[in-house]
């Protein structure tokens, strides 16, 4: 008889005793994932630029019984950000789970897209995520365990007008997930990405009131609706769990079937 494979002998995906840093956790997808990680037992470090918004999220997490604290910094300030990450680790312990999720959008037609806007979006969405995740990865690799999850996008899988900088950044993140996994898997660090479809958050606010877009999206998405930040939560926990240690280099679309269909 085969021996018990061990799956399911305890609660799968417990994050008890782990520290999770969520970049861009004050609102939207990051906030929902902070709740999800916290509900599975992780202690959550809530990042954002706006101290008031981060503090409100920390308060709400606390009301839900989750241990959380704000780590306020602008990811574009790499020096300040790494110093704040180090200080947070000195207070609460090493970061086991990094959700590199902070991101911005700028919409304009390709032929009019300003180079400064292109560089700004690329810096926040790609360069800063790369630099801060690498900072966390050094400690994870030294300790032999870590989970890094980037937020990609289905705009890196399917072309869409007016989001050229955003697409460039997210496409590069998708490529990095595979490249980082090649370097970090043997060190106990997995690297994956969530690729959300259209999620109702402040980032997509410009589209919420656009009836034509709304109707197109509902028709085009097999699930027939916009995503919510909470739709990302279970996928986040799955990728963050110790039990998912053999899952690396993957882009997990969470999009109601949009990118799987014509
Ligand atoms: N919504 C969608 O449909 C969708 C689809 C695909 C991918 N995504 C990606 O999902 C991630 C989260 O987006 P969201 O929709 O949840 O957006 P959101 O509601 O606008 O939230 C963005 C978060 O990122 C933070 N942030 C932005 N720039 C930052 C900076 N320079 N330094 C530190 N924090 C910064 C914000 O902090 P403050 O509150 O302090 O500004 C906020 O917590 C982004 O990477 C986005 O590209 C979203």
UniProtKB/TrEMBL annotation:
PANTHER family: 5-KETO-D-GLUCONATE 5-REDUCTASE, OXIDOREDUCTASE. Belongs to the short-chain dehydrogenases/reductases (SDR) family. GO terms for molecular function: gluconate 5-dehydrogenase activity. Keywords: Oxidoreductase. This is 5-keto-D-gluconate 5-reductase. Residues 18-202 form the Ketoreductase domain. InterPro entries: KR_dom, NAD(P)-bd_dom_sf, Sc_DH/Rdtase_CS, SDR_fam. It holds the Pfam family adh_short_C2. The keyword tRNA processing does not apply. Its EC number is 1.1.1.69. It comes from the Bacteria.
């Amino acid at each position: 008889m085969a021996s018990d494979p061990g799956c399911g002998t305890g609660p799968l995906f417990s994050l008890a005793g782990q520290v999770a840093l969520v970049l861009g956790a004050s609102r939207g997808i990051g906030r929902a994932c902070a709740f999800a990680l916290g509900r599975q037992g992780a202690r959550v470090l809530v990042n954002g630029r706006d101290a008031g918004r981060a503090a409100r999220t920390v308060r709400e997490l606390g009301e839900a019984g989750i241990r959380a604290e704000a780590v306020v910094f602008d990811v574009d300030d790499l020096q300040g950000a790494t110093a704040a990450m180090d200080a947070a680790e000195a207070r609460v312990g090493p970061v086991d789970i990094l959700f590199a999720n902070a991101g911005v959008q700028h919409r304009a037609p390709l032929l009019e897209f300003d180079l400064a806007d292109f560089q700004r979006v690329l810096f926040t969405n790609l360069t800063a995520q790369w630099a801060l995740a690498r900072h966390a990865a050094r400690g994870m690799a030294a300790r032999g365990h870590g989970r890094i999850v980037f937020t990609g996008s289905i705009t890196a899988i399917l072309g869409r007008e007016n989001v050229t900088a955003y697409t460039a950044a997210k496409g590069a993140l998708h490529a990095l997930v595979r490249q980082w996994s090649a370097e970090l898997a043997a060190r106990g660090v997995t690297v994956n990405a969530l690729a959300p479809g259209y999620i109702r958050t402040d980032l997509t606010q410009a589209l919420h009131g656009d009836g034509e877009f709304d109707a197109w999206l509902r028709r085009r998405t097999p699930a027939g609706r916009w995503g919510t930040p909470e739709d990302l939560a279970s996928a986040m926990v799955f990728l963050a769990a110790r039990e998912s240690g053999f899952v690396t280099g993957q882009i997990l679309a969470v999009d109601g079937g949009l990118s799987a269909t014509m």
